[in-house]
Amino acid sequence: MWGSTYLAIRVMVESLPPLLSGGIRFVVAGTILAVVLALRGGVRRFALPRRELLGAGAVGIALLAAGNGGINTAEQHVPSSLAALVAASIPLWVVVFRALSRERVTRGTLGGVALGFAGVAVLTWQGEAGSVDAGSAILLVVACACWAAGSFASGRVPMPRDPLVSTAVEMLAGGAVLLIVAAIVEPGGLPAHTEARSWLALGYLVVFGSLLAFTAYTWLLAHAPVSQVATYAYVNPVIALVLGWALLSEPLTLFLLGGAVLVLVAVALVIRHEARQIPASLAAEEGA
Q1: What is the mean predicted confidence (pLDDT) over 160-171?
Q2: What is the pTM of this model?
């Protein structure tokens, strides 16, 4: 489902403003989730300490307002398959943030990161037909770094213990910021003429992209090892690449395929290497 969202975003922004539609998506999804949770567990479920509320809100702004909002905007000018392939570098960005925070990162992991960013450079290189818009390519990279920052911060700032409550707060915070920014940079609001398929894509993103896929992601971050959760990066770009080619006739250039191979191999190396480090570190702690 998450792999298909890149194609849905591309269809959505064909006739809907990227920031406004993104804000609508997350506010609607966050409201639905919050109502369901309140009906099942009571409004007290959202009686959060201020620190947890601010933590979840900040993570939501990084993930959804900055990360997803940037991808929405970039996909006005780049293929959905390219957006998904650049987004596959998010686990590599997480390693960068770990290194910046002075965590111990092995040489093997750093080598995988270097290979991955070489793949990103190939993907965003304006080769062959010169069809990649440079500004949009840069925006994609920045958006992915913001998403990685939010994922990295989610385990280091106070967050609600209930991951579903956390998801609802994140979507409401990220969506609200997108609506505020949209009111400034997209003052015209909704255009007079929009395509029905753009609205259908928005509805698909609310249900399948947010209520199901994003909720599963945040739940897994709280219940599974990061190295295991990060394996989603193998699946998304492949699905997006096939769907973009089959449904939107997006081109499969040598630059795209070459960059895809480099990024996916790099992500595989980093995740596998990190997964091996976890048992080793646990054994060292037990021996101590």
Answers
A1: 93
A2: 0.87
